Structures are given as C-alpha cells and as structure tokens.
Amino acid sequence: MRLRHIEIFQAIRQTGSISAAAQLLHVSQPAVTKVLQHAEMQLGFALFLRVRGKLQPTPEALALEREVEKVSASLQGVRRLAKSLRREPGQSIRIGAIPALALALLPPAVLEWKRDYPDIACELSSDHSHELVQKLLMREIDLALTLNFSGHPGLTTQVLANGVLVALASKGYW
Fold first, then answer.
1. Given 85, 102, 119, which residue is the final one in a domain?
2. Sheet holding 121-126, edge to edge
3. What is the C-alpha to C-alpha distance for residues 30 and 156, in angstroms, rounded to an integer?
4. Domain match, 9 and 81 both
5. Exposed, middle or buried by CB within 10 Å (0-12, 13-18, 19+), for 84?
6. Residue pair 120/92 in contact by the 8 Å Cβ criterion
7. Does residue 48 contact residue 58 with C-beta atoms inside 8 Å?
8. Residue 110's domain spans which residues?
9. What is the DSSP string of 76-88?
C-alpha cells in the first residue's frame, strides 16, 4: 500500500463513506474511488463492502488496520519533526517539565526569563518523563526538566541539583 492508499483507507474507515472521506480529505469523490480501486487492485482483495449504503471493512481490511495505524503514527511523527525543523532558532526556548516542576518551580523562573530576555519567548509545557523524551527527540521542545531519568542514547543529561525528600505526617503517626 502506498501512503495515499493508507490515507484514503483511514478516511473511509473514519467516515464510513467515500463521499464523506472525500470531504474530509478535501478531494473529489471520484479521486477517492480511483485511489481505493487502485489500492484494492494492488492488494488483490477488497477493503470494503457496501452494506445498507455504508462501507464496511472486510476481514482483510480489519487485519491491516493495526499496521496501517503504525504507519500513520510514524508519518505524524515525520510531520511533527518537519514542523519543528522549520522553526527559526533564537525565536524562543521551549521547556518541558514534569508537572511537579512545571506547576511550582518554573513559573517564577519563566517570569525572570521574560524580564532578562524580553525579545525571546519562553514556552513551558508539562508532561511526564517518557513524553518529554519523545518531545525532545521530535524537537518539539528544546530542554526538559525531570526528577529522575535513566538516560537515552540520543539525549544529553545534566544534573542541576540534588535534594532531600521529606515525608510529612500528623504527630504520632510514626
């Protein structure tokens, strides 16, 4: 299957009809029909059956769906990376942090940044560590702050601080 076949396949799965898929993709209905027919010809089996005016996926189409989703997710990653690469360096700094740091520690730091560097925007986002790693790899953020990190071959780490973890409880609890 070609990428265009996959795009048409997913649009039909999402909408249930060729005309709705065409509207979703901003193309003509005959164009969707032609691409679908080409995909089915290359595959050697039908992807959809018409049932009461709706297109229903064949068992073969359902079997392909998981792999098609993987390709689609990878393509989304390529699009995200390409968008990040278009960004002009020096316009802003994008910082990601785990929620505990993003909500408490970073807002005052961002205010200080804005005072010292008024012409450079500072964007702050909050995610969990594994999501921060993905955003760094996709160049959606420039820097991430987390409490512990086991490492990744594509990333550099720098310990910024060490501290003590304290538990609080009512008197007599221990």
1. 85
2. 121-126, 92-97, 143-145
3. 51
4. yes
5. middle
6. yes
7. yes
8. 87-145
9. HHHHHHHHHHHSP
Dump pLDDT digits (tens) for 134-147.
889 888 888 999 98
| CA 3 – CA 27 distance, rounded (Å) | 16
- Residue-level pLDDT at 119: 81
Residues 6+ apart with CB under 8 A from 4: 35
Are 107 and 54 found together in one domain? Answer: no
Q: Are residues 46 and 81 in the same domain?
A: yes
> What pLDDT digit, counting tens, does each position of 83-141 carry?
766 666 667 788 899 998 888 888 888 888 888 888 887 888 899 999 999 889 888 88
Quick one: tokens of 96?
């990601």
Q: Mean pLDDT in the chain?
A: 87
Question: 97 and 128 share a domain?
Answer: yes
> Are 113 and 45 part of one and the same domain?
no
Number of domains composing the chain: 2
